[in-house]
Prior knowledge:
Elements: H1 9-16, E1 20-24, H2 31-44, E2 49-51, H3 72-82, E3 86-89, H4 93-101, E4 106-109, H5 111-114, H6 117-127, E5 134-137, H7 144-156, E6 162-166, H8 183-192, E7 198-200, H9 202-206, H10 212-221, E8 226-230, H11 248-257, H12 269-309, H13 316-332, H14 337-360
Parallel strand pairs: 1-2, 1-8, 2-3, 3-4, 4-5, 5-6, 6-7, 7-8
Helix pairs in contact: 2-3, 2-11, 4-6, 6-7, 12-14, 13-14
Amino acid sequence: MQATEAINETAQATWNKRPLIISGPCSAETEEQVLETAQRLAATGRVDMLRAGIWKPRTKPGMFEGVGAKGLPWLQQAKKLTGLPTTVEVATAKQVQDALTFDVDVLWIGARTTVNPFSVQEVADALRGTNVPVLVKNPINPDLELWTGAVERIARAGVRQIGLIHRGFSSYGNTEYRNAPMWHLAIEMKLKHPGMPIINDPSHICGRRDILLEVAQKAIDLDYDGLMIESHIDPDHAWSDASQQVTPERLKEILDSIIWRKEDINSDEYHAALEKLRQQINHLDDELMQILGQRMKVAEQIGNYKRENNITILQTNRWNEIIERAFLKGDKLGLSKEFITRYFDAVHMESINHQKKIMDS
Ligand code: PEP
Ligand code: MN
């Protein structure tokens, strides 16, 4: 059915390169835009692979949905001019076939597709007998089973080279990010699939260009294998994801500003491994603090409510309910009753203090 030749040597070497840097526009728009982006990216000397969305899954109808298969020859031409292997998002069997017909080197599965087992299975079936590497983005919702399930479907179709892309998770309400990174989930996924490269996509996490560096640096500190960052020759006028794209030249500045952590500081593997785990602990602690901060904000809202309705702060029944729930959950997570009690006492005290401040105000 589709091309079954072995992956070419350049593409293979690129796939194996660390850090692997993938960049290009959110969407291919015109032939000129694709070619100029590719050439300016190649000129930075920092980019390994060219990305472009050909078929765009958009939230609402009537938005720009990608140029479709007519953009594939533009990518082929861009590869010819720059030597950069290419990658595109695929969501259907037809898209897989079209992409492979035009020598796309690596395929990726988008976040909106990873959530749908029917679509992932369709793509997996179309990949049978090919040996094109596939990158699987995390699903839009924070569900590791769904992410793992998609990886398994692709693996069962015989695809041997699979990578992960962490692009953050959608959540209701305004946050600093377009898609909350929830680093702990990506770390867990990485630990579950030690052989698979994990690439960070700060563009879709941030949704804005000013904090790309910060997020990319975090990923590199956490020993990610690479980055996928969207770039455009005229970011503000991009047909999709305008606010998060950067010019190829700005991308170079970002990449030059990142502190690249060496695998083996002091050529001492033990220390490097320890350092990596410590970094993970730091990030998990940061996340716990964030969540505790949020918890206190909710407690303050409760404080407001209690003040307006003249209710006491301490309600014993409610407290017993919280602690019983925590014992049950904690047991499954390997947390002792003693720890749960001490931890919740501390959280509870802090919460009461926050509520008290509100009630006294
Ligand atoms: C994209 O990479 O442009 C894209 C649509 O990403 P995601 O699937 O992460 O939303
Ligand atoms: Mn995009």
